[in-house]
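An instance follows:
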Amino acid sequence: MHSSSPDQPQLPYNRPITLLYAVLLTALFTLVAIAPLSRAIAQQPDDIWLMIDTKNLTLSIMEAQSILRTYHNIAIGSNGPTWEKRFKDEKTPLGDFRITAMRSSERFHLFLPIDYPTMDDARRAQKDGRIGPGEYEALRSAWEKGKIPPQTTSLGGHLGIHGIGAGSMEIHNDFNWTNGCIALTNAQVEELAAWVTVGTRVKVR
């Protein structure tokens, strides 16, 4: 069972990938990442999508309503899930999102960012006072233009699905340790990357 812990595992995690595999991944992610978000989402079918269960700490690859693959013992934000996320609260936002890019990461091995905050997040935050008119308008404008929403509002940002990089498997197995992202092992996130693309739907519940 996970619980609170430091932000980043410190012990080494050694699972090297081949140079050729790394080059191919980088080339693929570069091509995918440059596609405009609105066009990529419009073209991405919803038959393959991701279900993240923050209670049972699982990530499932779904085809319609059938489970194709489930990863157990994932890690989420060190302060748990929330519908009312704030900047630096170290909580994982609940809701429906889309993958906006796929890229290699020196810190996290691979990183698949999501389109948080969505307009649902913005409307809830405006209603309960977590953001003011200016930040709401910035989020609304970005969504209307098909752009990635601002990542520096009072709601936080820079969230996604990633590996643990050179972090500790022991910490990952025993604690929720992220700032709000969803973390898998490096091997798991490599496998996941073969199933998804820009625009893949991600449901966090």
